[in-house]
Amino acid sequence: MFLATDINPLAAGVAQQTARTNGVETFDIVRTDLLSCYEPRIQGTVDVLLFNPPYVPTPSEEVGSIGIEAAWAGGLHGREVIDRLLPRIKTLLSPRGVFYMVVVIENKPDEIADILAMDGFQMTPEGEGV
């Protein structure tokens, strides 16, 4: 089963259409903030967690809106939404689970790696930006 969330209603609709177009039948998308609608029922069961957060540094007031700026508005260092999810990764992933996240240098990836390491994770860069 594929579960998805997005705070932006247009993005949620596009994700649903993309799933249909690609023949994905077990796809559930909910317009919500992060994973609040799925917790705690998915704790310890997530095999692959993909997180494309709003990572652009912006004023904090822009974070959490439902407009188009929700796609990029990450607040201080682009980390306000990222930092809310990081402490939850350990309880969400299954024993074989993996976590992929998009970050930019302004997000201070070394700090993110240190935070994840405290929970026993190793962060490995998979690609570099254009």
Written account of the structure:
With 130 residues, the chain is α/β, with parallel strands linked by helices. It has one domain: 3-Layer(aba) Sandwich (Rossmann fold), CATH 3.40.50.150. The strands form 2 sheets. Strands 1-2 form a two-stranded parallel sheet. Strand 1, helix 1 and strand 2 form a beta-alpha-beta unit.
Low-confidence stretches: none
Helix-strand string = EHEEHHEH
Main sheet attributes: strand count, strand direction, barrel closure: 2 strands, parallel
Global Rg: 15 Å
| Content-based structural category | alpha/beta
Q: What is the strand content?
A: 15-25%
Q: How many domains would you count in the coordinates?
A: 1
CATH architectural category: 3-Layer(aba) Sandwich
- CATH fold-level topology: Rossmann fold
CATH class: Alpha Beta
CATH superfamily: Vaccinia Virus protein VP39
Global geometry: globular
Helix content: 25-40%
Largest beta sheet: strand ordering: 1-2
InterPro entries: DNA_methylase_N6_adenine_CS, Euk-Arch_PrmC-MTase, SAM-dependent_MTases_sf
Subcellular location: Nucleus
Protein name: Methyltransferase small domain-containing protein
GO molecular function, one term: S-adenosylmethionine-dependent methyltransferase activity
